[in-house]
Specification:
Elements: H1 2-144
Length: 158
């Protein structure tokens, strides 16, 4: 076992310059490379966090604007529906008024036609009564015996 310890001690003495060199290299690399690399990585991490935070803020802002847009769009849609309903009611009222006027005009025309027809019927009755009286007079003359004058036809006034 003594030999092993002596070999280990010898190995340690021979490796001391390498250990010092590696330690010295670690210090130099730490100062020149790792610190700068760590600083760059830290800055990159901060930039990434900042970008993520800005992205979240912009996303929240975009969502808020989207909600505003949706609300404005919904309000516009409701306004269009309200206007359509008002136009529909107005068209229905206009149609109702037109139908009412047409009904009144039809009734007026019907009344005029009935009055004209009644007047024509009255005139026809009057003409028939006159013709009947004339014919009745002629028939009466024929029956009573006055006779018919020559060249005279029935129903032809004198």
């Amino acid at each position: 076992m003594g030999k092993i310890l002596s070999q280990l001690g010898q190995l340690f003495l021979e490796s001391t310059p390498t250990i010092i060199f590696v330690f010295f290299l670690l210090v130099i690399l730490d100062r020149l490379f790792f610190r700068r690399l760590s600083e760059i990585l830290r800055q990159r991490e901060e930039a990434t966090r900042g970008a993520v935070a800005r992205a979240r803020e912009e996303t929240a802002l975009a969502e808020a604007r989207w909600r505003e847009y949706e609300m404005a769009f919904q309000a516009a849609r409701q306004e269009v529906y309200r206007l359509r309903e008002a136009e529909r009611r107005e068209a229905l009222q206009e149609r109702e008024n037109t139908l009412h006027r047409a009904g009144e005009q039809t009734q007026a025309w019907l009344n005029e036609s009935q009055a004209a027809l009644t007047a024509q019927a009255q005139a026809a009755r009057h003409e028939l009564e006159r013709t009947c009286q004339t014919l009745a007079g002629e028939i009466t003359e024929l029956i009573i015996g006055e006779g018919r004058p020559e060249g005279r036809e029935l129903g032809v006034p004198r």
